[in-house]
């Protein structure tokens, strides 16, 4: 038997964890990213998952020849 879908008490707490987890995850991730940039925790060669340092920027920084380019 199902209860009224509009009553908050009819939902188990586990059903609400996903939304709460996502919110907390976003807050913590944004704070850590800010701290990492401010205190230079990451190496300057770290490009992935950083603001203004996408992996696609590696080619522009190193020029046309990169570590992964074909050798003549």
Task: Describe the 3D structure.
- The protein contains 2 helices and no strands.
- The longest helix is centred in the middle third of the chain and has 26 residues, at 13-38.
- The protein has one domain (11-62).
- The model has no long low-confidence stretch (mean pLDDT 75).
- It has helices at 13-38, 58-62.
- It is mainly alpha-helical and 72 residues long.
As a whole number of angstroms, the C-alpha radius of gyration is 22 Å
Give the strand tally. Answer: 0
**What would the average pLDDT be, to the nearest integer?**
75
Low-confidence stretches: none
Give the structural class. mainly alpha
H and E string: HH
- What summary fits the major beta sheet? none
Q: Which percent band covers the strand fraction?
A: under 5%
The percent of residues in helical segments reads: 40-55%
Shape: elongated
User: What's the tally of helices?
Assistant: 2
Total domains: 1
Measure the end-to-end span. Answer: 71 Å
């Amino acid at each position: 038997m199902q209860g009224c879908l509009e009553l908050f008490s009819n939902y188990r707490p586990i059903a609400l964890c996903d939304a709460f987890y996502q919110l907390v995850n976003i807050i913590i991730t944004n704070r850590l990213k800010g701290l990492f940039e401010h205190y230079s925790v990451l190496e300057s060669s770290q490009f992935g998952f950083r603001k203004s340092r996408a992996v696609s920027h590696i080619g522009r920084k190193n020029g046309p020849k990169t570590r992964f380019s074909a050798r003549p």
